[in-house]
Amino acid sequence: MSGLAAASRGAGASASSESPARMERIAHSTRRLLVYTVLLAFSLYIVGPFAAILVNAFGQGWFGGRWLPETWTLKWFRFARTVADLPTLMTNSLTIAGLAIAISLAVGIPTAWAMAKRRVRARALLMALILLPRMVPPITIALGVSREFYGFHLVDTHLGIALAHSILIIPLVVLIMSATFEGLDDRVLEAARVCGARWTHTSWYVIRPLVMPGLLAATLFGFVTSLNEFTLTLLTYGPRTVTLTVETYVQIGQGFTTIASALSAILLVPSLILLVLIQNHIKPENVVGGTKGI
Questions:
Q1: Which runs of consecutive H residues, i.e. helices, occur in 183-256?
Q2: Which of 160, 185, 189, 213 is 20 to 30 A from 46 in CA distance terms?
Q3: Which domains does the chain have, with CATH numbers?
């Protein structure tokens, strides 16, 4: 009897020791399932709209409760090329984006250098003013800009729309490049001066390679910002300066959602290219300057 009781106590102790371990495994599996469920739901939430645009752009007969279109076609892209005059839209959009980047870099880089390397009074206030266009609704800026541009005859010109876009791009350039310049070690610049290098040589052969990742990031973000900008373009464009975003809005207003989806799919391409370039070639530690403390 004593042996049977001892065996029973041993089995109970073994079961009680296994119970916490089993509960821990169940809790771990539950947490993993919950994490994967949340990630899947978030992915569907992000990818879903893009998938709908692509299906609508390449599909025909997609209506009602159908999961997929009846057929797949490139007809809507051909309509976008002929009806919406896609080559002209692309030319206008790329021309405006190129001008906007040139203006923004010409203004933003010296400003960023001054903010990062010079003693500027009320620096925080000036930075707040520079970033203000990114904080207020675009329609607020667009209303004021359009009124001024009508007076200077800049409406319906590539330069005028590029100037309007630069209002949103210059803060990006200043923000990125000021962080990049702050990361430069002053000892590197001092060494170049001690060696007798002129400022132009120092800028080109010393500063330029070190800040190139930040400059690339500012250029790419600014280019895509201009290419995708709608509100400022809507109030400053004209018959000669219709862009991809404005034409997409026009096609939706006319009820041609399939053509609008084709144009939207084309607009996705630069953003995807930007994403790949940033992931593969631009590291965050290089954007903010990787020479500090050498």
A1: 186-194, 199-202, 208-228, 231-234, 244-253
A2: 213
A3: 2-72 (no CATH), 75-287 (1.10.3720.10)
